[in-house]
Amino acid sequence: MVPVQRRRFLRQAAQAAGFALFAPSVAWALDYPTKPVRIIVGFSAGGGPDIVARLIGQWLSERLGQAFVIENRPGAGGNIGTEAVVRAPPDGYTLLMIAPPNAISATLYDKLNFNFIRDIAPVASMIRQPLVVLLNPSVPAKTIPEFVAYAKANPGKINFASAGIGSTSHIASELFMMMTGIKMLHIAYRGSAPALTDLLGGQVQVEFAPMPESFEYIRAGRLRAVAVTTATRSGALPYVPTVGEFVPGYEASSWYGVGAPKTTPTEIIEKLNYEINAFLVEPKNQVLLAELGATVMLGSSADFGMFIAEETEKWAKVIKFAGIKPV
Questions:
Q1: Which of 310, 317, 296 is closest to 55 using CA atoms?
Q2: DSSP H helical segments within 95-210, as ranges?
Q3: The 94-98 sheet, strands edge to edge
Q4: Are 149 and 221 spatial neighbours (Cβ–Cβ below 8 Å)?
Q5: Containing domain of residue 158, as a range?
Q6: The whole model's pTM is what?
Q7: Which end of the chain has less neighbouring CB within 10 Å, N or C?
Q8: Phi, psi angle pair for 149, to nearest 5°
Q9: Per-residue pLDDT tens over the stretch 251-294
Q10: Number of structural domains in the chain
Q11: CATH code, domain carrying 225
């Protein structure tokens, strides 16, 4: 185990021990939940946020004795689902699956009917997944430096796909262009599936794509994986370097967690935080998450709130630099 991975493992193990010792007594005394709980996902079924929501929903149902029902409300970059949670009673019976578009939308949209950081209480972070920088085999580059050189030699001739304006794949690509000085033409799709279809067909040349949807194409040699976008390499693709190994400081990822309406009782948030962290340290769940290319994000609700604020600030700089506007 390399030093960085070992330090991360030891830190997570220590945190896990802390959670086991610090189960809040008030939370255990709560009757919550006494009826079914909704987890609203602001995206379509089958995508990353939906998959993670269903995994934690099943776990919470089994642990807490009430159904945690997943409700998909896609649209407007997740804002329709988010607003539904903002308007819900702060009683713990309506939760939100939080994802990067929540941090991105705070700057991308000039007029929202809510302020995400102010109106949603962080409950718990869950996982982080890298994106994979995929090239169509027609591109004569096998590394990030070769791709950057190729793009600079062919300005404006490379099309990059994304799952839509303001999606994680879009903003991660914009950050890459901002940090390398290359220019590519953005082609926005309605989701990652049609984007990958056109990448396979050569209509676009590159995509910063979600990892789970990419595995079969990488393994079959139909698309070339030249890097992952997280700060460290992924255990699911250990032979693929990070973008940051060639572009110092670069980092982007898909991450997920749970939120609730503001003023939800602290005791309920603590109880949910404890149970979600219990899910993350369960060995069987860690194996399952690793198969999805994910690493767990243990922490308190306050830790998650700080992380969201940092991500919101980070992506605000990219959006303003690139002049990105919603359609």
A1: 296
A2: 100-108, 116-119, 144-153, 168-180, 192-201
A3: 68-72, 37-41, 94-98, 254-261, 120-129, 295-296
A4: no
A5: 131-245
A6: 0.88
A7: C
A8: -65, -40
A9: 999 999 999 999 999 999 999 999 999 999 999 999 999 988 99
A10: 2
A11: 3.40.190.10
